[in-house]
Design a protein that fits this description.
- By secondary structure, this protein is mostly beta strands.
- The protein has one domain: Beta Barrel (Maltoporin, Chain A).
- The chain is built from seven helices and 42 strands.
- It has a 22-stranded antiparallel beta barrel.
- A hairpin with a 3-residue loop joins strand 8 and strand 9.
Length: about 750
Amino acid sequence: MKPLFTTAAALLTCGLYAQQDPVQDSTDVEKLDEVLVKSVRVNAQSPITFSNVKKEEIEERNLGQDLPILLNYLPNLVTTSDAGAGIGYTGFRVRGTGNQGINVTINGIPYNDAESLGTFFVNLQDFSSSIQSLQLQRGVGTSSNGGAAFGASLNILTDAMGDKAYAEVGASMGSYNTRRANVKFGTGLLNDHFNFSGRLSTIQSDGYIDRSASDLKSYFLQGSYKDETTLIKLISFGGKEITQQAWNGIDPQTLAQEGRRYNPIGFQYDDAGNLTGYYDNQVDNYEQDHIQLHWNQRYGGGWSTNVSLNYTDGRGFFEEYVDDYYYNNILFDPSPTFDFIGWQPYMVDDEPVESTDLIRRRWLDNNYYTASASVNFKDDKLDFNAGVFGSKYSGDHYGEITWARYFDQDEEAGYRYYEGTADKNEFTTFVKATYRLNDQWSFFGDLQGRFITYETGGLSDDVLPFNVDESYSFFNPKTGLTYSIDDQNDVYASYARANREPNRTDFENGDPQPERLNDFELGYRHNAATTRFYANVYYMDYRNQLVLTGAIDDVGAPIRANSGNSYRLGVELEAGFQAGRMLAIYPNVSLSTNKNRDFYFQRDGELQNLGNTNISYSPGIVAGNRLDFMPFKNFRASLLSKYVGEQYLGNIDAALSKLDGYCVNDINIQYTLNDVAFAKSITITALVNNILNEKYISNGYFYTFDDDFSVPGEVTTVEGVGYYPQATTNFLVGATVRF
């Protein structure tokens, strides 16, 4: 009864964070910025399930937390934070699909890392302050650039150019010594054609988890030229993040003994096995810079084009202390041994030295180039879009030892104990169109081809040969129709296919196969002046889905494996009700069943068919709500609630792997004073997260191994689990002054 009661409470007190407003017409000269995302977005008449989020809605809660946390209240979306308070390494899942299955684009340019397929929002520091709008499509959605969407796609449009000059200063502070400061500026329109704007930001936080601090610095700069038919934008953004590592989670025994905030990373032991402390520079240190050039051109007769170029430069490392005693005697890991490092044993004080305490850095230095071009035609009947996309990725992976208690006699700090390379190229072409047959019927078609090559060489970080040479050719058709009952009611149905290649970690852990998804959507939309209601049913049928096994590697990256046949079946409901001028409520709820078919698992040395099992990290119930109270002008108080049902951290329905459901409530207050003595406006924002002090866990890991030595002649499967506790009641408060 408790889950049902909690879900009902969430629906009664909980909101849809975004509204499904139509995307602007690309032929509108005043909205040429929208052409940047024309090829990857859909509008209100499309047979695609989506949510739009405006700049104003992001600003209401934007006090320094990462973008996934700001999107927490969208339908069927679950967020998590390694550091526990939404700053640092954060992520989200949609319909049970994690970061690696969510296609993210910025101005139509892929943001997903080409090799890992993941999205690292820690490298988009304070990027929410430079977003004009975004669209989250659930399911396969429409064709996009980069990796295929296996659960959702997130399309981000950065700040549009404004006609008026402005300056803006913002600052916030809160729990866990969190501080943020940013400065924004815009020149307005110069000489009727030119515009320049930018942002500088810094964010620091100690994190909820011990030794999980973040130090984030970022910038966003853009220059634009426009006339009645042309928009040219040069955009550069990036930053540097230094975050203490908190990606190992905590096992139940340590959680009970040491508490929720304990961080089991960076152990230092003496030779007798006594814990002496923790390494204080166990950090992830990474810089990333993006340069984008966009040329949007509008022609007569409904035609427009977009050409985009992008260069992304990423470089950085994570540093860790490898303790000789801990790795050899507790982890049974060879990392501190001379044999692993590639050194020869030698004598010290007449004793052989074959292993050592050391500090190592594992580096990634990568470059990513993209080019894309699209053409659009639109009239009263037809909206046609076609384009091509190409990308080239090159990455150098290497490890260096910066310090060792016993250095090899012939080596010095900076010794590289492994080196590897990776190259990935992609070419994509697509054509899509929506044809309006009459006032009621419109048809949608979308054809995409993806062609990928992936090659690696050298050694992996396990100091093993890592050689991949794979090519993939994927054809992804999509089709659908929309029936307009009247001006307020639409019904739509669609089918979409997506194919997706494995990522680097998949190859490091086995011989993976590409995965395929057939996505069927049936939906209804009602939009009126004071009410809206959306309902959709989805059936996602997978072949060789790369599901999360529950296990993580030694840097916290999730390990995946092909699961054969599997499916996700669900219903998503959203609503919005405006009760007069003062009150509005926006609830949503998603109910689903997510199953692996005939899942095989080797338990106690025997291969067993477990039948249909639950797909990992896929809660059957996800509900959200937003209740807005606006008693007077420029003041808004919101109660935001999120309920996530129980979920399994693995695919074998093990009782140990079940993660309890949770319900979290936040309060958001914002008040704006206009035309004060020294500024145009001052906006004061306060956010209290988890007001009921729920001690919840939003994420974890699950693993198994076969014990074949405890009892001679017997094999016993041993299970283990770990958790990522999230922050209890905490707050952020800030002010933004606009001049």
